[in-house]
Specification:
- By secondary structure, the protein is of the alpha/beta class.
- It has eight helices and 37 strands.
- The protein has two domains: 31-254, Spore Coat Polysaccharide Biosynthesis Protein SpsA, Chain A; 280-400 and 420-450, 3 Solenoid (UDP N-Acetylglucosamine Acyltransferase, domain 1).
- Helix 3 crosses helix 6 and helix 3 (95-102) packs across helix 7 (229-237).
- It is globular.
- Keywords: Transferase.
């Protein structure tokens, strides 16, 4: 999971509203600037929020120090979507509820009537407008809405489970990661709130203050401000007539591991084929062979004999040589794939190089294709003392400073580039199911290893 942690990962995205207008609000995010389907993960959230009529502002929340890459991205995103975007830094990790409660004045400034909260470690179609319409049809003016979806009975135990009235969709019972089966409807980590939510969070805060005790074993004070929306707030709201679930049949997945990042990229690329086909590469005379959904940054150099796809994302300034085959992979900016390399189920880190006739391959961790409600499992790094077979990762720690915070393919290319991951794979070797840390020059083949 560490490969998805951003350079100073941002923990939340906030959207809120002024008057009858809406803005978004808090979501925990692993590596918001990690590219999925050609753009930073968090940009998919921002794009969805910007489409909501009347959306006024987007706030990203987290407790990590802001950095240049994030600042450049925010400037670029504001220009792209014509909406103010700010980063609010927590003084400590406060949880999803504690974070929005701490910044409640910022959220409510201007007379906000409603706001969205989106966890950034999910990919989705983000049916925000549908949630707004659902709320207008259900509950009162102070009701709240959770986005839910269906999981199979086994995997539902890994999520927040929702029991709802079949007719009204009112949440009657909520349990976070139960030990036994409760419901197949799970929490998607996307919420629609009104300012009334802060009264309920405030009650939790006051209760925490009253129960505050010195934890001798932890050698410190338990923070009353750390509040979890799911366990601390939703559990109490269930059955009160104030909490509803909007169930979606659209795609949804968590992004908790490197393997799930490739799966999320596949989902977004498939969405592009329906909603934004102009973002996908097409077969053209003199161009590479494209199979399925493929994103290629305009600055990438691809040999006409290369074969790409399905489900491939090629980043800025990437060089792909003759006869190269890439499938189910993400190639980040500045990477170089020399002639006749084969890259399957792999994330190729920034500025990495793969030599001629080398083969780099991982094992996909896709959901069961025969189960329409199956979700991707977040595998542990080790199982039974051995590295769990998964996708291969070359040199990912955190992204270098971008040449320019990129948006969609229509954006102009960037200029300056600092050092990246810089993994070098020699010619004619095989790297299988392995994780290669940054700045490594390999000299031979590896299988099922972490190369430090």
């Amino acid at each position: 999971q560490g490969v998805l942690l951003a350079p100073g990962p941002v923990d939340s995205v906030l959207l809120r509203s002024t008057g009858t207008r809406f803005r978004p609000l808090s979501f925990e995010v692993p590596k918001p600037l990690f590219p999925v389907a050609g753009v930073p993960m968090v940009q998919h959230h921002i794009e969805a929020c910007a489409k909501v009529p009347g959306m006024k502002e987007i706030l990203l929340m987290g407790f990590y120090q802001p950095h240049e890459a994030l600042s450049r991205f925010l400037v670029s995103a504001q220009q792209e979507f014509k909406i103010p975007i700010r980063y609010l830094q927590e003084y400590a990790a406060l949880g999803t509820g504690g974070g929005i409660y701490h910044f409640r004045d910022q959220i409510l400034s201007g007379g906000a009537e409603a706001f969205f909260v989106l966890n950034a470690d999910v990919c989705s179609e983000f049916p925000l407008q549908e949630m707004l319409e659902f709320r207008q049809q259900h509950g009162d003016a102070h009701s709240f809405v959770i986005l839910g979806t269906t999981a199979n009975r086994t995997q539902a135990l890994n999520y927040g489970c929702i029991v709802a009235n079949a007719n009204t969709q009112e949440v009657q019972h909520y349990v976070e990661k139960p030990s036994t089966f409760v419901s197949e409807i799970i929490n998607c980590g996307i919420y629609l709130f009104t300012p009334a939510i802060f009264q309920h969070i405030g009650e939790v805060f006051q209760r925490n203050q009253q129960e505050l005790v010195l934890e001798e074993n932890a050698n410190g004070w338990q923070r009353a401000e750390v509040i979890r929306l799911e366990q601390d707030v939703f559990t109490a709201l269930a059955g009160s007539g104030k909490l509803y679930v909007y169930k979606t049949d659209g795609f949804w997945s968590q992004i908790k591991s490197a393997g799930s990042a490739i799966y999320a990229s596949r989902l977004y690329l498939n969405q592009y084929s329906k909603s934004h086909p102009e973002r996908l590469a097409q077969n053209k005379p003199g161009g590479p062979i494209i199979r399925g959904n493929v994103y290629i940054h305009p600055t990438a150099s691809i040999d006409s004999t290369a074969v790409l796809g399905p489900n491939v994302s090629i980043g800025e300034g990437v060089t792909v040589g003759a006869g190269v085959r890439v499938r189910e992979s993400i190639v980040l900016h500045g990477a170089s794939l020399h002639d006749h390399t084969c890259v399957l189920n792999t994330i190729v880190g920034w500025d990495s190089t793969i030599g001629r006739w080398a083969r780099v391959e991982g094992t996909p961790s896709d959901p069961n294709p025969n189960d329409p409600y199956a979700k991707i499992d977040s595998e542990t790094l080790f199982r039974d003392g051995r590295l769990t077979p998964s996708i291969t990762i070359l040199g990912m720690s955190h992204p270098p400073q971008p040449r320019r915070a990129q948006s969609f393919p229509s954006c102009s290319p960037s200029n300056a580039l600092s050092t990246g991951c810089s993994v070098t794979i020699p010619a004619e070797v095989v790297i299988l199911n392995s994780i290669v840390l940054p700045h490594k020059e390999l000299s031979r083949s590896y299988k099922n290893q972490i190369i430090l």
